[in-house]
Amino acid sequence: MNTVSLGEDLGIEASAELKERLAAHLDASELALDGTTVRRVHTAAMQVLCAFFRTRREMGRRTELSGCSDALRDAARLLGLSAQLGLTDQQDLNKNTVENAA
User: For a FRET experiment, which of 16, 51, 83, 84 has its CA 20 to 30 Å from that of 61?
Assistant: First the structure.
C-alpha cells in the first residue's frame, strides 16, 4: 500500500497543491494518507480530501488515513466529515470539545 504524507499545512493556500499531489495517486489500488503531522487545516483542504476519498470510492479504490493529528481529526469532526474520511466515532469520542473560533 502506498502512503502519502499530507504534510503540516493544509491551509487554503496549500489546497491547489494538495489536489495536484493527490491526483498523482488517484489510480493506486490502495492508498494511505498520513495526516500525523498536520497542524493547520482549512475547509478548502477538507473539501479536497473528501472529493478525493469519494472519487476513489466510486472507482472501487481503497483509501484510508494511516495517521491523523488532533488538528485534522478536530476539523473533520467540526465540519461533520469524520465518516467521509473513514474516522470512527470512537476516535472522535476520545477528543475534547473544540470551540470554533470563527
Answer: 16
Helices of type H across the chain? 15-23, 43-58, 70-78, 89-93
What is the Cα gyration radius of the chain? Answer: 13
H or E stretch including 9?
Answer: strand 9-10
How confident is the model over 68-100, as pLDDT tens digits? 999 999 999 999 999 999 997 544 444 444 545
At 49, the amino acid letter reads L
> Which residues, 6+ apart, have CB-to-CB distance to 22 below 8 Å?
4, 33, 48, 49, 52
Q: How many CA atoms lie within 13 A of 45 on its CB side?
A: 23
Determine the distance from the C-alpha atom of residue 21 to the mean position of all C-alpha atoms in its chain, rounded to a whole number: 13
Angle between helices 43-58 and 15-23 (to 10 degrees): 20
Q: Model's pTM, two decimal places? A: 0.83
Alpha-carbon gap, residue 93 to 95, rounded angstroms: 5
